[in-house]
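Worked example 4.2. Below are the chains of a multi-component assembly; read each line carefully before continuing.
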Amino acid sequence: MTAFSLINIVLLAILVATAVTITRLRALYEAAMLAALFSLVTACLFVLLDALDVAFTEAAVGVGISTVLILGVLALTRSREAVTQRRRRLPGVAAVLLVGGTLGYASLDLPAFGAADSPVHSHPLTEVYLHQSQEAVGIPNTVTSVLASYRGLDTLGELVVVFTAGLAVVSLLGPLRRRRPTRPERPRPIADFDLADYRVIRVVSGGLLPFVLLFALYVLFHGEYGPGGGFQAGVIFASGFVLYGLVFGLDRAQRVVPHAALWSLVTLGLLVYIGLGMATMLLGGSFLDYDVLAPGNPATGQHLGILVVETAIGITVASVMTTIFFSFAGRGVSR
Amino acid sequence: MSVIEVLSGVLLAAGALALVSGGVGLLRFPDFYTRTHAASVTDPAGAGLILIGLLLRVDAWDTAVRLLIILLFLTLTSPTATHILAHAARRDGVPMWQEGDRRR
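Applying the procedure described above to all two chains together yields the following structure tokens:
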């Protein structure tokens, strides 16, 4: 047995153990932490498969921001799972068995692990993406050129999904607002979020915060050369901002970025993306055809287009994540 | 095998040992505070020694810079996390273990 398969088997075993433990736990805070562990192990498995961009996204979204959002939700509700009667669990068991069985049956049709003659490797499109993209787009990280250039319309769809999710959360929880001045001025502890009286964490997170934001910008603009891009950068930026809100209190965080600015940023990213597509159409190309941005020099045009698109993605993702956190955390405890 | 490679191997082994001892302590220690102590060994000692061991093996300077940044980040964040955990536990009144108590 090679070391590679040994590591894979160990990680998959940890994954299964974590999943089983999550289903057996009633304490939801612990379950949230284990869900983060699940994402971390998944990210390790993606690294072993050489899918660094996917691993990066899994680590940033699954371990970072979604854990914080789940904790924010738990602060609003009870943190213990209600007991379901044994009889009423049967439909759930049936659904799980049905879906699991279907997926297991479908996985029989997949090519063997690492098979060289699988469609992914033998299809002529692979050649286009892996080799011609180096000349046509001129970016070392093929994932970025596929994501932002070849499949730019799909990525626009993904961004619309993120936008819609943010919109749905805000329309369910009500618009972001400041505290009404009629309430007593006593500083209200915002659920469990008020860490501002811990001096150590205030100093350390205050010192680290600029570097977190700098790292987000690095991930954004380095996405053409290494793993990373707009989605990961947006999530890291939002994590830094959420950290600020957790440590220094929500009111101070909302003074840094007022609601109106956050709202405009949510739509700004999407508008820049669509606007770029419109601009390429006005310049005589098709929707999101970056070649026309720099006439006579398609590689420069592609470069420019991908940079604008990644920045647009980063803006919308970061502001949507921050908005979702603010709408949960701003509601205070209501049980 | 050069001196540097041997040194790096020793550091990696020491880091792995620190990680294992942290894991054993996490399972064996009697209460929250002692377990926090065991867990806090893993990051600066375990991961730190492994990172230094890897630093001796790098072949490009940009990899070394990245490893150094990770090391710096760990040395800053890990003690903070331990401190906050213990602080929060004390605020919530998690009892201390004393000689003769049962494991919690």
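Take a moment to check your reading of the output against the notes. Residues 1-81 of chain A form a domain with the Four Helix Bundle (Hemerythrin (Met), subunit A) fold (CATH 1.20.120.1200). Chain A has two domains: 1-81, 127-335.
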